[in-house]
Amino acid sequence: MLKTEVLSFEELNTQQLYDLLQLRSEVFVVEQDCVYQDIDGKDQKALHVLGYSNHELVAYTRIFKPGDYFNEASIGRVVVKASYRQHKYGYDIMNASIEAVIKNYKTSEIRISAQTYLKSFYNNLGFVEVGEEYLEDGIPHINMLRA
Hints:
Strand order of the largest sheet: 1-2-3-4-5-7-6
Radius of gyration: 14 Å
Oligomer: single chain
CATH superfamily: Gcn5-related N-acetyltransferase (GNAT)
Distance between the termini: 27 Å
Largest sheet: 7 strands, mixed
Structural class: alpha+beta
CATH class: Alpha Beta
Number of strands: 7
Shape: globular
Number of helices: 3
CATH topology: Aminopeptidase
CATH architecture: 3-Layer(aba) Sandwich
């Protein structure tokens, strides 16, 4: 079972910050072979949803209130460590993130910029595609909305 916690940037300790940046880099930069600026100046505005298995950070998202990233609340940087994906922690971290949006921002309308190959994963969580596919950092993405 994934144990989650939701923290503001100021509440993160240095080890948690290091671990989440390491996990994001491990998956988005190294595994996906995508050179891009992960540290984008937006972490300070976000709430960070950390997912632990046996005290190891294995899943993560960051969430934004309406207006900070999109007009709607949003969830981004959705990541699960490769060696833990068979446990379906993607669903656990996303469900915790959706709950955190509802609790902290009092809305259930959430927009995401999803990697296109994950459409069905997000469909299973109640998100539907809106608009056309586009490239972001060389990877096909699509906007998706959950009302």
